[in-house]
Amino acid sequence: MAALLVIDDDVAKMDTIEGMLSDAGHEVISAHDAGEALDKFNDHKPDLIIAERNLLLSNETKLLEKIQQSKYYRHVPILLISASYMDMTAVFNRDIGRYDRISYPVDVDELLYKVISLLKHKEIFDDLYSVRTAFEAIDRDVTERKRAEQQMLSMQRRLNAQWEIARMVDADWQTICDRVLEEIVSVTHSEYGFYGVMNEDESMFMIDTWSDGVMKDCGMDDKPIKFPIDQAGLWANAVTDRKTLIVNDYTEDVLDKNGLPIGHIKLKRLMVVPIMRNNDIVAVGAVANKAEDYGSSE
User: Is residue 172 part of a domain?
Assistant: First the structure.
């Protein structure tokens, strides 16, 4: 998991946050003052900073300014512990999605959700930075340059999609699911897709939303929305194996496919992603029939 630098001079509150993050599998690095925080930032090069507002934004210690001047800073996101959103708009008025805020008393679910979101943002920007560096180094190979440019645009599209979904705090569940599906089908350039949730013991998958093309092209008389995992086909391997499943040659000889019901849409390529939370699979997203092969970067 990730290395997280937690900065707070209140030992009791810090212990609480450390426990929440450690239980989720993260490496926690703690600092109780500005000097210790700067030293540990440079020594450990954390993936994310979680900092109490007064320590981070102090005009006396200028901790935030010094961290931003560090050669290790680049795309490190910051989760500010503050009671006011004014700090966000006044200080972090750039790089949408790189900063977020939480307040005491800290809710463990909110904390872990925002940590995951910020870490994903960093991952995308690290990839984008790598692609941009490669792009700048290309002098004559036009083909590679165009490919790098497309990767940059795709990564930016993914980042924007994640940020827009994260902002849907007042939307109902079905609206959020429909938007998630729309985005995963769009960013992967897929023909079909579905998205849904798992029950608590991970034995049953319930589809919340299908892409329009699935309902139109599927000729099955009965289109189920609940799937027992032990009776499902190839796609369920993503759940049982607890990792992303990519099949770029969906033919009759694919192992564990279990055949297709009469009238089922014809699949050519398939990618299924289990969504984890605290080591439990809580949802599954799937896309199919991209014109080109699916890759691990998607």
Answer: no
